[in-house]
Amino acid sequence: MTLISFVSAKGSPGVTQTVAGLSYVWPRRAAVADLDPIGGDMSLRHQAEHGDPLDLDRGLVSLGAALRGGDQAELGDHLQTTSDGMQVLVGVAAPGQVQGLGTSWPHIGSTLAAHPDDVLADCGRFTPGSPIVPVIERSSALVFVTRSEVAALAHLRERLRSMREPLGIGAVDGIPVGVVLVGDPRDTRSVEDTEQLLAAAGLPVRALGVVADDPKTVRAVRAGTGRNIARSPWIRSLIDVTTSIHSLIADRALARMEMR
Q1: Going from the N-terminus, what domains does the chain have, and what CATH number goes with each?
Q2: pTM over 0.90
Q3: Would you give the DSSP letter of residue 81?
């Protein structure tokens, strides 16, 4: 149905954790695809249904092999269910495996976009020339995850500048781009400041909200323990960000219809 790609501009601001969290609160069925080209973390952070390790041979590598040469494949055949109920496409274990996917990337993107459920793709750090570009191009939205620190926002601004033309940022027929900040969800000023910073650079990118930096709740969710998790700052902030992401996609779809 809908493919949404999540990336960082620099470092490890919490993309994997944010994507997993969004899958818990997503209003429709959603699968998580671990596409980080330098090696995914999903298989390290999650276990299979009965506590066994996730199968590293069943996931992105097996999907890429099935799609080699342009053949079609069903994403569901390559998904695994984690002990906390997440449907996940396990990523590569090492950067060298990405090279083996070769020309499969456009077909991987098309397969993810055609999946009957929504797909939340953890694409790791996004740089020009990255092998994940074909997946980004087939996405309904691109979401940058970053810390609300000056240095992090400066890197974000420069990365968006470098990708403005390739992604068509701001164009009606371009990919809608949003930013999720990781920090204190009560810091609404950082959302406004981020939008103003990017707008001043000629980048009409929407700030989608702040995901709480709440490691205690994250650990409890993974372990299936803890009480009143639904009321935790992390879960509540993820629900708010989910609403903003859907609004970003809907507004762009409406703008495209009005242009016809």
Answers
A1: 3-259 (3.40.50.300)
A2: yes
A3: E
